[in-house]
Amino acid sequence: MQLIDQHAKRIMEGCKERARDAGLRFDDETLEYVVTNRDLIELSPKVMIPTMYDYWVHDVEVLKGRGRYELYPSNPYETVINTRPAISYYNDNNPDWLNVMIFYHVLGHIDFFQNNLYFRHTWDDDFTGQALADKRAIARLRSEHGRWVDYVIEFARSVDNLVDFHGLLSDLHRPPRNGVSTRVDYYFDVFLQDVKKVRVNDYVKEIERFNACRRRDPEAGEDAFFKEVAARHPEFAALFEKSAGKPGRQHRDVMQFLLEHSRFLAAEENKWMQTVLQIVRQTSLYFQPQIRTKIMNEGWASYWHETLFMQDDRIAGHEVDFARVNAAVTAMPRVGLNPYALGMRLFYFIEEAADKGRYSREFLSLLDIDRRKRFDTAVGGGRETIFAVRENLNDFLFINTFIEQDFVTRHKLFVADKVLDEQRMVWRWFVKSRKAEDYKRMIKDSLYHPPHITVDVAKTGGDALHLVHHFEGMPLVQEYVQNTMLGLEFLWGGKVVLETTEVKSVKQPEKAQQPTLPGIAAPVVDQAPEPEITWQRVRYTMKDRKLSKGLI
């Protein structure tokens, strides 16, 4: 692994100038390395951070990677990581025209890393330096405690998705007070969300109403707002007074709770384990936004490598080569998900819709298909709109807000399913739905969504850690429960209890006509009847390394 030569660096600097002229914003300093595929085998288990701590599973991953490389040599185009300065890796045999395309793609990623608000907690940190310090700390602890360090890492990594990422962002993004009282915090953070459990639309409307009151009268707007609150929610005043104006926060960060309250970890001989847990927790928090913005991030980078590459005079004569490579990266599969393709097309769609004024009440009220297709007020502002989207949203909000029927129809998207052809004993695919809501649901189901698990402080004591899984329609993966709770019992130093929801029974609907392809036996049906599922609350208890289960 070595830095790119001066010729390639000049190409990169030229790409930076053109990217900034187009509106991208990023730091001046970047590091670019040339690597071989064998180098990537060593880097991949460390999430491409060369200074990440060594962990015994990495050895297994490196061996697996070497075996896979011998059978199927791969040639990835680029990898970029969100550090200060940003680091990117390139193959050692790329021609100049391909480097131009890849550099634009990388600059799109760097712009996203350094401007999307979900990455804000990473903006001021040099993670490569922090990772190096963590690696040295792990090495020192391993020399003192041997393989126990790796076991603690294993236990910590089993719950490293149970960190309060949004709580971190909430604290980080909290604006100056500007006269806003704790009453406002309690109303929006606790009363509406935890007491009333209002829908998202109603929550947003309340925020808009509060902002409108403040705009009309900056001094007395808050009091005017809460007069209506008192009329609609008479109990609010008493609940706020009882809370002493201090909004409570659920203990959503299980790892942080272990660090602060585990008597086992607080024991003098075990304090070194706190260092390990803190390293794993901070690493998890650092990478949380990347997994939550994959479609947006790859789509944004693909949008810019295509937009800027086609305007670059340095690629003359390689348009066909670019088309071939670009099609391989951004082709929309008929079945499955390509985040590059979906994200890029959605950014193009948003830009066009904003330019034509289609995010207006006038357009949204139109029902005639032909009039919707012809609608164009030429208001402009599409580029500014996608920059605002890039700054403020994550994958869930991106997909939930902007995938609509016009987008699904334009790109001929659909939800596919398969049926068994009993005559030939083969699976046959068919189009299950072309509705935007169904396609949107399919994409949202594929997104990263860690379980919502909190600590029940009232039931937790020195002898037991009590966890509650807030059911959101998806049960926990049972095969992981035993090992995860075993690690929690070790880190807590006592019994661990987990309340969750599991399937009690599944009632199959009356046998419907078997969906199949047209002309085989029966017409394709849009959607087979869904089974009726009955859920029940259960309690898992891990004590003395033995797991028991009972109904609640």
Short description, anyone?
By secondary structure, this protein is of the alpha+beta class. 52% of the residues lie in helices and 13% in strands. The protein has helices spanning 6-21, 37-43, 56-71, 96-115, 127-145, 148-157, 165-173, 182-195, 200-216, 221-232, 236-242, 254-261, 263-266, 271-292, 294-309, 319-330, 339-355, 361-364, 369-374, 382-392, 395-402, 405-410, 436-445, 478-492; strands at residues 2-3, 30-35, 78-81, 86-91, 415-421, 426-433, 453-455, 464-469, 495-507, 532-543, 546-551.
Properties at a glance:
four-stranded mixed sheet; 24 helices; 13% strand; alpha+beta; five-stranded mixed sheet; 552 residues; globular
Topology:
Layout: E1 2-3, H1 6-21, E2 30-35, H2 37-43, H3 56-71, E3 78-81, E4 86-91, H4 96-115, H5 127-145, H6 148-157, H7 165-173, H8 182-195, H9 200-216, H10 221-232, H11 236-242, H12 254-261, H13 263-266, H14 271-292, H15 294-309, H16 319-330, H17 339-355, H18 361-364, H19 369-374, H20 382-392, H21 395-402, H22 405-410, E5 415-421, E6 426-433, H23 436-445, E7 453-455, E8 464-469, H24 478-492, E9 495-507, E10 532-543, E11 546-551
Parallel strand pairs: 2-4, 8-9
Antiparallel strand pairs: 1-2, 3-4, 5-6, 7-8, 9-10, 10-11
Helix pairs in contact: 1-4, 2-3, 4-15, 5-14, 6-14, 6-24, 9-10, 15-17, 17-20
Task: Walk me through the structure.
This protein is α+β, with helices and mostly antiparallel strands and 552 residues long. Helices cover 52% and strands 13% of the residues. The protein is built from 24 helices and 11 strands. The chain has helices spanning 6-21, 37-43, 56-71, 96-115, 127-145, 148-157, 165-173, 182-195, 200-216, 221-232, 236-242, 254-261, 263-266, 271-292, 294-309, 319-330, 339-355, 361-364, 369-374, 382-392, 395-402, 405-410, 436-445, 478-492, and strands at 2-3, 30-35, 78-81, 86-91, 415-421, 426-433, 453-455, 464-469, 495-507, 532-543, 546-551. The strands form 3 sheets. It has a 5-stranded mixed sheet with strand order 7-8-9-10-11, covered by helices on one side. Helix 4 packs across helix 15, helix 6 runs parallel beside helix 14 (271-292) and helix 9 packs antiparallel against helix 10 (221-232). It is globular. Residues 245-249 and 521-526 have low confidence and may be disordered.
